[in-house]
Amino acid sequence: NWATSLAGGAQFGYTLLTVALLSNIMAIVLQSLAARLAIGSGRDLAQACRDGFPPWAAYPLWLLAELAIVATDVAEVIGTAIGLKLLFGIPMALGVAITALDVFIILYLQRLGFRYLEAFVIAGLAVIAVCFAIQLALADPVWKDVFAGFVPTTEIVTNPAMLYIAIGILGATVMPHNLYLHSAIVKTRSYGEDTNSKREAIKFGTIDSTVALMFALLINSAILIMAAATFHTNG
Questions:
Q1: DSSP assigned state of 14
Q2: In the chain, which end has fewer C-beta atoms inside a 10 angstrom radius, N or C?
Q3: pLDDT tens-digit map of 49-90
Q4: What's the pLDDT tens digit per position in 116-158?
Q5: Cα 135 from chain centroid?
């Protein structure tokens, strides 16, 4: 998300904000469907794929999800190591080792209960949101141009360089392994087994994921706007 939004804003200004918005709408729809599947059937997306597809289809789906997770984690591990080096001068190899300890923190929080893990993630996102609010204020973008960036343009598909970044933004927002994860997370909620209870659980689950993704859109847009105002405008 950070890499694609920074690159998109720096190279093409506010034009790709429309891609961030459309990608977010796609993610909202797909996560809502994943939640409906999990709550309605009692099976998450991975279990449904295993039960519903023959092995020749189910195993490649599993492999693709694993590869997507690895690709995402590589970016996160290296990105964190670079951040530690920039902030504190820690060597890259040591930074990667420190980053690996994050996994044990996550596992410990998960043992305490899933709500502790959610609180940890929300706290991290809140810090990011505050940081980018400050950076946006310092970048001082032209808000008329920002809102114009949410209007679709054919240049996105006719310009190969722009299309490449647009596909990156789409792939960083609508991630397959995230759909598997979300369908499993909603099953941790407490709800009854009768139809009305499941309907209510689906409604609140959809609201929950929609609010979370809209918050993610604000942060992704802030990254792109900051990059456009700071780098694209000044050359």
A1: T
A2: C
A3: 999 999 999 999 889 888 888 888 888 889 889 999 999 999
A4: 777 888 888 889 889 888 998 898 898 999 999 999 989 999 9
A5: 20
Q: Which tokens go with 88?
A: 């504190």
Q: At a CB cut-off of 8 Å and minimum separation 6, what does 215 contact?
A: 125, 129
Q: How many CB atoms lie within 10 A of CB 39?
A: 24
Rounded-to-integer distance, Cα 80 and Cα 162, Å: 27
Q: pTM (2 decimals)?
A: 0.81
CA atoms within 13 A on the CB side of 90: 16
Which tokens in the block code for residue 143?
A: 């808000």
Q: Check if the beta carbon of residue 211 is closer than 8 Å to that of residue 31.
A: no
Place of tokens 């596909």: 167
N residues, the chain: 235
- At 67, the amino acid letter reads L
> C-alpha angle with apex 71: 68 to 74, nearest 5 degrees?
145
